[in-house]
Design brief:
This protein is α/β, with parallel strands linked by helices and 264 residues long. It has eleven helices and nine strands. The model has no long low-confidence stretch (mean pLDDT 95).
Length: 264
């Protein structure tokens, strides 16, 4: 039997959903997405679980989408795939139980979309949050950041390929709620989850819905649903095609080196 890319562990009323591709720093693949959906189904149906903690196995939380060789799809095919991804994050945002992200190592690119759709983010103060090391698209990841850090900081980070901020800075910016030293991160996150889990499940569900309704009125859902169209269009730009051409020629690490070596 193939190894599961998402694991579930339970501690009383708390369920851990663990991204489990440590050799790939928990990059988001189709197989991981399948297991992620199945894990959400299982946890949603479990009436003993009140709070979910998402974390990554190994050295990182999640470094984003698994980027390999690139073949240009049609704009419609591209948009449709990106919408499937977006609706998955909306499902997480609407999940009927509070979801806490516990971040260590790196949380990059698509991994930050996941974070932005969790209810609370708790991080190692030395974790690294940020954007892809190559400009591979636009209007898909960065718009999630704007809701938490404001438009200027979101633009500053999104327009600079490979930008990074620490867990401490992420907390200051507002994409994380709290940060701790790495050695106590798990303990402190669990303590927060247990405090939340004391509230009855039906009350937690309704309180979460009330907060999300305000974000809806401010345009959160409409905004991120615009991302697939925008990103699919940007993927047709000559500059993006050049990036993927370099990935195909040099491999991902080689393409990043080529990009960083450019003189401006």
């Amino acid at each position: 039997m193939s190894e599961k890319h998402v694991l579930i562990e339970k501690k009383g009323k708390i369920a851990y959903l663990i991204l489990n591709r440590p050799d790939k720093l928990n990059a988001l693949s189709m197989e991981l997405f399948h297991d992620f959906d199945m894990a959400l189904d299982e946890i949603e149906a479990d009436n003993e679980i009140s709070v979910v903690i998402i974390k990554g196995s190994g050295k990182a939380f999640c470094v984003g989408y698994d980027v390999g060789s690139y073949e240009l799809p049609s704009v419609t095919e591209d948009r449709d795939y990106l919408e499937v991804c977006t609706r998955r994050w909306i499902r997480l945002w609407e999940f009927p139980k509070p979801v806490i992200a516990q971040v260590h190592g790196h949380a990059l690119a698509g991994g930050t979309q996941l974070l932005a759709c969790c209810d609370i983010v708790i991080t190692d103060k030395n974790a690294k949050f940020g954007f892809p090391s190559l400009p591979l698209g636009g209007g898909f990841v960065g718009i999630y950041w704007g809701w938490h850090v404001g438009p200027q900081r979101a633009k500053l980070l999104d327009l600079t390929a490979g930008s990074r901020i620490s867990g401490e800075e992420a907390t200051e910016y507002g994409i994380a709620a709290k940060c701790f030293d790495g050695e106590i991160l798990e303990e402190e996150t669990l303590k927060i989850a247990r405090g939340i889990a004391k509230t009855p499940r039906d009350v937690l569900k309704l309180k979460k819905m009330a907060h999300n309704r305000i974000m809806d009125l401010q345009g959160f859902r409409t905004g991120i649903m615009y991302g697939p169209e925008q990103d699919a269009i940007i993927h047709t730009a000559d500059g993006i095609k050049l990036m993927y051409q370099k990935i195909n020629e040099l491999g991902l690490k080689g393409a990043i080196q080529w990009f960083n070596d450019q003189e401006v």
